[in-house]
Structure formats: C-alpha cells, structure tokens
Amino acid sequence: MNIDIAGLPSERIVFETSPLAELGLALHALSEPGHHPGLHGWATATAASLEPDLADRLHEAEFLWRNTFSDVFMPFAGVRGGDGRTGATLAEDLDILDRLDDERFVASALEFTCASLYGTGAPSPLSDPRMRARALDMAAARGPRQVEFTQQLLADPAPVRRWVRRLFEDCDEAFFADTWRRVQVQLVADARHKTDLLRRRGAGEALGAVSAALSLDGSGNRVSVDKMTEGSTTATDPSVGAGLTLIPSSFGWPHLMVLHAPGWRPVIHYPVRHPELPSPASVEMLQLRLEALAHPMRMRLCRNLARSPYTTGELADSHGITAPEVSRHLSVLKKAGLVTTRRRGRYVLHQLDLTVVARLGSDFLEGVLR
After folding, report:
1. Per the confidence metrics, is the pTM higher than 0.85?
2. CB 119 within 8 A of CB 262
3. Which of 22, 34, 119, 283 is the most exposed place for a label (fewest CB within 10 A)?
4. What pairs with residue 258 in β-bridges?
5. Are 226 and 253 in contact (CB under 8 A)?
C-alpha cells in the first residue's frame, strides 16, 4: 500500500490523538478479544460491566468495527474543506462526525458492504441505484441486522446518525471516559515524541519509529505500508486539507490501519509498541518462510535440523539424496531466515532457528491482521 506525499511540506505530516478513533479500536477489542490477548482482562471486565441495553445496542452495530473498521471513527479526514485536525475530546470528535455530509457518512458506515470497492471512488448509494442495490445485496449476505441498518441508512441518514452518536456518547459514559483518561497520557507523549523526531530527523526517521512496516522511498515522495492489502492514495488533495495524519493507539496492536479512501485525507492509525513485543516480520519475509516450509523434503530436513546441527553430508546420507540437492534446499531455508550456519573446524553445521520458527504462527496472524 502506498501514500503519495510528493511535494508535501513536512509540517503537513502531523501526529495527533483521537478519542473517537481509540473508541473504535476499544469496541473492536471487545468484539474480537482473540485479536488482542493483552487486553483480555480489560475486555472481560468491561463487557461484564455493561448495562444490558447498551450491550444490545453494541451488538446491533458491531459490524461497524468488528470485521471492518469504519471510517466514521476518523471523520476529521473526510470533512470537505476541513483542516484534518482531530478533536481534543470525544464530544469534539463527534461534532466533527456531525460535519460529514450524508454521502460520506453513508459511504463510511457501509464499508462492510463495499470492501472490494474501497479506494475506487465509487458513486454514492444515496444517488446511484446500482450502488444502492449492491449495498442492500451485500448487506443481505451478512445478516438481518446489516440489512435493517442499511435500509434505514439509505432511507434517511439523519436518524441513524443521531442513533450512532448517542451510542458513542453512552459508551463514553459507561466505560470509555475512564479508559481514555488512562491511555491518553501515553498517546499524547508518543505523538509529541514522533513530532519531535519528525522535526529533528525527518519523515523517514519518524515513520520508521512508528512501525517497521512503514518506509519512505529514496526520493522522499512515497510512503510504503507493508500490508497484505493493496491500495494507494495521495496526501496532496487540498479539498480536505492536504497532509498526512498519524494517530497512535493503545488498543491497536497488532492492527496497523490506513485510511485511503479517495477524497479523504490519508490516515495511518498505528499501535504504540511495547518493549516486550517483538518486531513483526515483513509480509515478504513471511511469504518466503511459508513457501520454504511447503516443500516436503525441506520439512523432513527441518526435523533433523530442529534437534541438533548437521552437516550437508550428514543430511544427504540421512535422506538418501545428493549433497548438491541438500545445499539447494538449505539455501532456500537460509534465505527465509529459518536456518543458521556456523563453522566447526573444516565442517559447516546447519541448524533450525527455533526462535524464528516459534514466531511463525504469531507472525502470520499479525501479518493478516495488520
């Protein structure tokens, strides 16, 4: 995924905090605790404390944050003629949400029906009969709650907008105000640190500090995001205040999300990393490792290499193949970072890197969730 920042002044790259964006990820963690094992205690305690009415309403709307993360949580990026600034409080963020025109609110609220069209600038289902029919059809494939929500939204967005705002306000009263007070200090400090790094060391250093999945090309014109999702956008559209916004999240890991809808200011919503969390493998490296292990002979070689170091000759004898064949397989495993090599006298010993192999499952999960 790429973000074009050609000609963008560094002062238009901003780090900000957003209570509404953090609420979205908090709601996601409540709906998908398996994605966030470190938040299990918070999710269990919060879910248990919810009043039945609020719990029921959250269940009705969870498609806005469970499987897709709706852009309604980052309205500051879509207000036409806006400056791309977030609110200091949840109430201010919700006021910005109220400023979104109906077309943009509806498009963002119906992301669960248009994932394949996200980023294409498709016409609004409010005005285009074909898109309206498609939205209703896709909603029907997902369940009756989604159908009812879509029908109400397309018939008259205003009551749905009021219902959504009231839902978020009730979340704030029930649990999020206390949660935000606890995490805000860390997020503000992170945004301030990254801003200082941007000013002193430049965009490349600041982006690298955000995540190993972010990089700036040699020309300084394009930000690349190492995700399995394909997409591209530009940070130079003046209609929404040209610029790039980066928002830290305490609830986000392992998700690294990019808002890249046409006509919206691009946003990178990134998790504030904790020291105990290992750096994620790149998508390319993860693919190399899975492909390396897909070959049956390399799997058999790994059985030996996991137990102790072996020479090429020993592996050839053990498996009844030639030394050159073993060398070719070992080369693939080494390129994938799965095997280490050391010399003992005139012998070269190969061994499986158990730490890397043990990370494969979590690397895969983080890669697809990122």
Report:
1. no
2. yes
3. 34
4. 268
5. no
